[in-house]
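Field reference: "sequence" (input) and "structure" (output). Example, Aspartate aminotransferase family protein:
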Amino acid sequence: MSDPLERLRALQGADLPVHGGRTLAYVYDSGDPEVDRVAREAVAAYAASNALDPTAFPSLLQMENELVGFACGLLDAPDSAVGTVTSGGTESILLAVQGARDARPDVVRPRMVLPATAHAAFHKAAHYFGVEAVLVPVGPDFRADAAAMADAIYDDTVLVVASAPSYAHGVVDPVTEIAAAAAARGVRCHVDACIGGWVLPYAARLGRAVPPWTFAVEGVTSISVDTHKYAYAPKGTSLLLHRDAALRKPQFFASAAWPGYTMLNATTQSTRSGGPIAGTWAVVEHIGDAGYAELTDQALTAVDAIVACIEREPALRLVVAPDSTLVTLATDDTLDPFTLTDELVARGWYVQPQLSYADHGPSIHLSVSAGTLTHVDDFASALGESVAAAQAVGPVAVDAGVVAFIEALDPATLGDDDFDGLLAASGLVGASAEGDLELPSRMAEVNAMLDVASPAMREALLVAFLDRLQRPTR
């Protein structure tokens, strides 16, 4: 009989490293092995526990309440504030939108006002809950245009959104002005601080300039903050805080309309593993307030060093000065951003390419953690080498025939034959003897092909790709 754990370790060898500070997307590394040990032991201890029923597992209820209490202290929450532990930032955002919708049963066609830079999870919520997303263009500094957002609020608006910071560019929206406009119309204002919620309060304590965005801002009614990001907790937890219990109440779901137990849920989930909750609680207890201040200082010092590296490279520029731990850079005409991404990945630094949007070209996104600080000299060397290598390779050009093929496709009706035809035309992604998709080791040409497609076509192509990837192994 084979050892499943041995196979598990072998499978994991193909994954991105979650420690070492060089994976600048998807994972957040404190750089402290003891944090990882505490988290793993707590997750294992509670892996079979179920937070569905707080009367059955009161220890999980206590942990959740203590986590919310810790966050209330960070976010200047009033004594009336309440909160919920969710499975991640997307669920926190979904619940904020669902609660805002259900709080206004008088509105037949509810809408929410979003800056164009708001996280895509709000679009997912719009899709799921039938709340129209009204997108408002941002200013040249990539921050929300508060005046334009105020003008977009109507009687059917149930929610107004701001980011602290926005994911793509790492800047904080003018929350004070946005929340005031929402409050003047009697509309909820949600601040998406999934990234910044556990960083910006400590940044302010460290003397960094931080625009106001917490519950100290009048008119902010709810805030989402992810503990699996800069609280350095295990994957699978976020917090959604409301200014008072009445604002949270529409989020709850109960049903006695069946012969089983009366279903009662605080989130979209029913069964909730106690593992992530216990792991998060244990990590927050272990690191503590002073520890988070130190980790934030390390992360922001790493950001400063990376910004300096970018500014030393003539072919690179910051898209905008970062307000937090997210850095976005762009290239000049001598340097292809997708090739630069490949070169950095080849040197052990995973960075995230971002495709063109509206009038802005492609960029490269970095989520910097405390664990990155000890490796910034290596990053500087890798960046210089990668820039030189990418310039030597030259820009990626998408064949005119492939461009024409993409333009002729209808994203609304894209089928398997269309997708297979594009694969054949591009020559970028092949199929194995078993029929599985095989990606090239370098992704510049794939990203360049996606970049010439419209956003709707990108969505259709990537959905088709995901559908092809997720097929049973027999």
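Residues 400-469 form one domain.
The first strand starts at residue 82 and ends at 86.
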